[in-house]
Amino acid sequence: MTMTHVFPTYARFPFEPIKANGVIVTDNHGQDYLDFTSGIGVCNFGYQNPAIQNAVSVQLTKMWHISNLYENHLQESVAALLVGDEEKLVYFANSGTEANETALKLARKATGKTKILSFNHSFHGRTYGAMSMTGNAHIQEGYAPLVPDITFADYNDDASLNAITPDLAAVILEVIQGEGGVIVGDLDWLHAVQDKCQATDTLLIIDEVQTGIGRTGYRFAYEGFGLDPDIVTSAKGLANGLPVGAMIGKASLAPAFGPGSHGSTFAGNPLTMSAAEAVLTQLTPAFLDDVQAKATVVWQTLDKFDALKTVKSVSGKGLMIGIHLADDLPVNDVIKALHHEGLLTLSAVGNTLRLLPPLVMSEDDLTSGLNTIYQVLSK
Ligand SMILES: *Cc1c(COP(=O)(O)O)cnc(C)c1O
What we know:
Layout: E1 17-21, E2 24-27, E3 32-35, H1 38-41, H2 50-62, H3 73-83, E4 88-93, H4 96-111, E5 115-119, H5 128-132, H6 137-140, E6 150-153, E7 168-173, E8 176-177, E9 183-184, H7 187-199, E10 203-207, H8 221-224, E11 231-234, E12 245-250, H9 270-282, H10 285-302, E13 311-317, E14 320-325, H11 331-340, E15 343-344, E16 346-348, E17 352-355, H12 363-378
Helix pairs in contact: 2-9, 3-9, 10-12
The structure holds pyridoxal-5'-phosphate.
């Protein structure tokens, strides 16, 4: 492409996906790709999922937008599905960044404290608050001054527990750092962080924007770790591709978020809520069991990758996978080679090949995609 009227913030591959169905994406040259990206962990139910497509089509003929000045039964339904039988409340936003921004505001307002602890290699978004909590110097470069009173510690490091002190409003973390390289939180360390938060009256915010909505075989990944966060943020997979974010917080935080304290024009609109409702009603225990069963087969297949000279290690959980490549094999070269083999994949920090296939992908397609990757990495 020679002529562009779009700011060059994205390095784009030279083809355009123009349609998709199930787990197959088709580009403008007519080439089909097996999708190991789900957008970026968004289209967990694949493309043209009948229940989601039907819900949105029906809502489209009723009303797209009104505002948050009136009752909204779809927001109530989605919130009820997110909360289940827990004493929690939901605030709807338009993205993961915005959900984390909301969590930051609520944490400061509810505690009356200002300090936030985040972790190196984390990713929480790109607006000022969310970017200031993101532990990646490259993402913050050129944007100083950032939001004050946010500090960083090392992830999975016991020494970081000393940084959790009573003057903190909140600790924010991902139980698996996604953009940062698919780094899985250590179970004991995560519980030690939670214990220290509880002992110091510090809110624990878990960013489930990437790990949530079934990605690891649980509704939220923290459930698999047996954690009890005060605030959870969700987005990516929540409406299977329509822009949405959600912050789920303990009901005891409600007094800090009264009428007029926060808000959004678009957030929680009927169209995105109809999609989110159709996502969450399909995210049943049986569906999650099936994701876990498929993940077991996937991780058996991944076992043999460790022996490859081009692979340093493999990390992840469920259908969230990071293949850490040798330094002399740039991940972008691998992604391009896989395009030629008809497979879409992602990268993450640390020369990591990141795989986030739709959760509805069959065992056969998962295995066949992994074998394609194995062959490319064997060359
Ligand atoms: C993608 C992501 C975000 C940002 O979400 P956007 O919808 O792009 O704003 C925040 N946190 C995590 C963990 C993410 O993976």
